Amino acid sequence: MAERITPRAESYSDWYIDIIVQAKLADYSPVKGSMVIRPRGYAIWERMQSTLDRMFKDTGHVNAYFPLLIPMEFINREAEHVEGFAPELAVVTHGGGEELEEPYVVRPTSETIIWSMYKKWIQSYRDLPLLINQWANVMRWEKRTRLFLRTTEFLWQEGHTAHATAAEAEEETLKILNIYQKFAEEYLAIPVLTGKKSASEKFAGAVDTYAIEAMMQDRKALQAGTSHFLGQNFAKAFDVTFQDQNGELDLVWASSWGVSTRLVGALIMAHSDDNGLVLPPRIAPYQVVAIPIFRDKNKEEILAYTDKVVEQLDPSVRHTVDTDNSNSPGWRFAEWEMLGVPVRIEIGPRDMQNSQVVLVRRDTGEKIPVALDDLRERVNTLLQEIQTGIFQRALQFRSDNTHVCETYDQFTALYAEDGPGGFAEMPWDGDPETEARIKADTKATIRVLPFGNEEKAQGKTDPVSGKPARYVAIFAKSY
Amino acid sequence: MAERITPRAESYSDWYIDIIVQAKLADYSPVKGSMVIRPRGYAIWERMQSTLDRMFKDTGHVNAYFPLLIPMEFINREAEHVEGFAPELAVVTHGGGEELEEPYVVRPTSETIIWSMYKKWIQSYRDLPLLINQWANVMRWEKRTRLFLRTTEFLWQEGHTAHATAAEAEEETLKILNIYQKFAEEYLAIPVLTGKKSASEKFAGAVDTYAIEAMMQDRKALQAGTSHFLGQNFAKAFDVTFQDQNGELDLVWASSWGVSTRLVGALIMAHSDDNGLVLPPRIAPYQVVAIPIFRDKNKEEILAYTDKVVEQLDPSVRHTVDTDNSNSPGWRFAEWEMLGVPVRIEIGPRDMQNSQVVLVRRDTGEKIPVALDDLRERVNTLLQEIQTGIFQRALQFRSDNTHVCETYDQFTALYAEDGPGGFAEMPWDGDPETEARIKADTKATIRVLPFGNEEKAQGKTDPVSGKPARYVAIFAKSY
Ligand SMILES: [Zn+2]
Ligand SMILES: [Zn+2]
After folding, report:
1. Where are the beta strands (DSSP E) in A96-247?
2. Which superkingdom (chains A, B) (predicted)?
């Protein structure tokens, strides 16, 4: 490795940026706050896309594409929506060499333009539900940006569904939350908490926002996906009604939901180490790299043996072969470790003599000699072991860093300058003022109100206000 | 069918829009010149995307993502580029509630932003070639728009490659042209002419532009894809040099190439008929629709038999079953014809008794009774026959409507008010003034200078100028 990755213990945020830049996942661009997603970073996003896209289609959703530009006036129609997004808008004022009569905004999210179309498309209950998703770029003018986590432009999917009843729209909202959780845990190997957001943290225009929240290695929370029950707010704003089965006119019910390229940042921060990226096998663009070690005199033999080795692999295993020996074996191993490939196959002269290879796990560094005959099965099970191992390690880490706080002293100690941080479970009276005081004191906010927390709150007291608790909330400092 | 599709003979352009709107492929949006791509249209685009993406990756290309916004100053750096694109730019002047110090343009194409990054990424011959593609939205402010064919915003892929030598960049340019031709002919079933553009028709900033040109059913030409050899123009504009193997500093060579959602328009106009869409099987989202014909009394039996029929199909055949019998069989057949599904399987009580079904070809209307035992094989071969049949019909049509013109009278007669139109092959002296005169007289332009046309021109005379011909060009009126 030519360049050094800052160790996490030295600076977690430098470590994060070093990995992105050195693994060539992304780069800074000449456009303020926008990044370039380089091929290696985009390959990870493509695997996220194709996996989620399949999950959405398997549950009846279809893709479509709506305009990038939105008439400014549309944003203004939903009171909370404009309040939330107005400060972050990018505005197009000129087109084709002329000043526009009405300015357009670059979409920060597409509820308004999509509901203006739903008005045209929905007349009767027979037109419902509409289950549409869009893969798109969006833009929110951010003052402080960080590669993948918060950029002025980002890529995402946004689902926008329309339903005849509140119950159906709520069911959809939770169905998607469930897909997000499954995707985060089973593919990204990131355990997530799920639940509702408090009113102060919900989406501008939603009735209820649900989220998946993950813990990063610095013990901060990262909101990794949100699913909103929008009630009839956007149907009202765009006058979208339908004739129900009794011939009566009702407003349509809605959900919207999204995950973004922020997930790439979450993936890096959840699993990687001081040697570079650590990718879970199910999301890794390459799951296996074969590295033949040879000199000029044995090049042909070793490469022929490498071909034999690679032919043993299950055809479904995504693999590559590194035949460039212009650097030392140690340098090459470190390079592929930095890129996060889950399994390295080392193939040297002695391995060839013994009809074996050495497998090296990226996540633990464990070296596993395997006979050629056993390779296929061993690699297949090893990839599963790594996937599970990475998830379990993250789950253990979260468990170790989640604290039940009975007193506010316990809580403030967690988030003190030299405190351990992490997730705190604490009763809350439901008052936004209490929430605001906690944030002012500690910078910790309510990440989620987990399912079932209201029952858990019964008989408990909010240690901040001394009032009866209505919720048991999960607090953390967050990205 | 509730609504009527305007017959082609009555108005080709109304017919085109009727199909798009009634098949719900796209819709007009409240944003001037932008369209909404509805799920049925987007499904066609997704199949185009996945097919092309595979072809690009199989030839060593990788995907990445660059910013939507481009500093206005970048566009100004390449003289021809700014001249070509300045009139079509959308400009962002405000962000985050403040006026920007320097305005950004919404990308009309990404050469400038990408070459500003290539300057950071390319130092040595070891960094070359760079073979990067981007799937993105772009924006060109158009005065006259038409769904899919010309819209202010459209979706496309844009490849941007960097090479150490002119020869390599030219080879890449032609390799991609070849991929575009193969895709158009083998998947879209649209025969295309390939060749170079004349100087007046080339991309703003290119040394040479190559194109694939297709004939629509109204005998006009449609440019369906372009591949540009950019020489060192953008390397000069962004000062992108590399150290070659001899340690000398050289400017980098470039290509760029793209196809867009315009291809969906081409697909519609090339094959469809007065009953609606006609889709080639290899690009159709559904290749087969099974339509059971039943009443309440035999519903269970017929649907059970339908299950048996569908199980016979090859698992690779994309199919759907229409079990909604609230309309008459005739209405349902017409509906699926309008949607362009290549093969309809009609399943009625008599079919069930005889252990057979009736296949109906969308392209010819031919009805083919098939025994259940023969269904799998028959459907597989039928899909191939339809794919080939559609292509051959389009090829015959182009051949019937391509005319070799020895005199300018022959030529002008083709493009007279009541002339037949089509493609004209005519010698050209290579003078832009001759080309401009022809355009002024007839509205026909040079679509391509086919490969080998210069040899063919030897000894011939340009019938317009009377001067010796340098080329034999293909002319047509175009979209
Ligand atoms: Zn504790
Ligand atoms: Zn003729």
Report:
1. 98-106, 130-139, 153-163, 192-196, 208-215, 221-231, 241-243
2. Bacteria
In chain A, the percentage of residues whose pLDDT exceeds 90 is 96
Tens of pLDDT along A417-446? 999 999 999 999 999 999 999 999 999 999
Q: Flag if B92 and A92 touch (Cβ within 8 Å).
A: yes
Interface touch B68/A153, C-beta < 8 Å: yes
Q: How far apart are CA A289 and CA A338, in angstroms?
A: 12
* β-strands A130-139, A153-163 pairing: antiparallel
Measured between CB atoms, which of B95, B117, B153 is closest to A27? B117
Q: Which residue has the tokens 């893969």?
A: A135
Count of beta carbons in the 10 Å neighbourhood of residue A404: 11
Residue among A63, A106, A137 minimizing CB distance to B42 = A63
pLDDT at B440 over 90: yes
H or E stretch at B384: helix B375-400
Q: Could you tell me which chain B residue has the CA closest to the CA of A62?
A: B39
Rounded Cα gap, residues A421 and A219, in angstroms: 6
Q: How big is the A-B interface in CB pairs under 8 Å?
A: 159
A97/B94 Cβ within 8 A: no
Residue partners of A112: CB distance under 8 A and separation at least 6: A70, A74, A75, A77, A78, A81, A234, A237, A238
For the entire predicted model, the pTM comes to: 0.97
What residues of A are in contact with residue B70 (Cβ under 8 Å)? 31
Residues whose Cβ atom is located within 5 A of ion ligand 2: B 403
Across A309-379, where does the E strand assignment appear? 319-321, 343-347, 356-361, 367-371
Q: Which residues of B touch A88 (CB under 8 A)?
A: 96
Got the DSSP string for B141-198?
Answer: --SS-BTTTB-SEEEEEEEEEEESSHHHHHHHHHHHHHHHHHIIIIIS---EEEEEPP
Confirm if B170 and B121 have CB atoms less than 8 A apart. no
Q: What is the distance in angstroms between the Cα of A69 and the nearest Cα belonging to chain B?
A: 7
Cα-to-chain-centroid distance, residue A252: 30
Which positions in chain B touch A117 (Cβ < 8 Å)? 27, 29, 36
**B-chain residues within 8 Å CB-CB of A132?**
39
DSSP characters over A109-125: S-HHHHHHHHHHH--BG
Hey, what domains does chain A have and what are their CATH numbers? 2-271 (3.30.930.10), 288-382 (3.40.50.800), 403-476 (3.30.110.30)
Residue A79: pLDDT band (50, 70, 90) is: confident
- For residue A2, name the pLDDT band (cuts at 50, 70, 90): low
pLDDT at residue A80, as a whole number: 86
The amino acid occupying position A423 is F
Other CB atoms within a 10 A radius of the CB of residue A241 amount to 16
The whole-number pLDDT of residue A330 equals: 96
Choose the mutation target among A20, A66, A118 for the interface with B, i.e. most B CBs under 10 Å: A66
C-alpha span between B112 and A385 (Å, rounded): 46
Residue of chain B whose Cα is closest to the Cα of A36: B66
pLDDT at B2: 53
Chain B residues near residue A67 by CB distance under 8 angstroms: 29, 31, 34-36, 153
- The model's confidence at residue B26, banded by pLDDT at 50, 70 and 90, is very high
Report the residue from A30, A67, A116 with minimal CB separation from B34: A67
- List alpha helices for B276-353, DSSP H: 299-312, 329-338, 349-353
pLDDT band at B1 (very low <50, low <70, confident <90, very high): very low
- Mean local confidence (pLDDT), A239-246: 97
Q: What is the mean pLDDT of residues B213-221?
A: 98
Average pLDDT over residues B60-85: 93
What is the average pLDDT value for chain B, to the nearest integer? 97
pLDDT of residue B47: 98
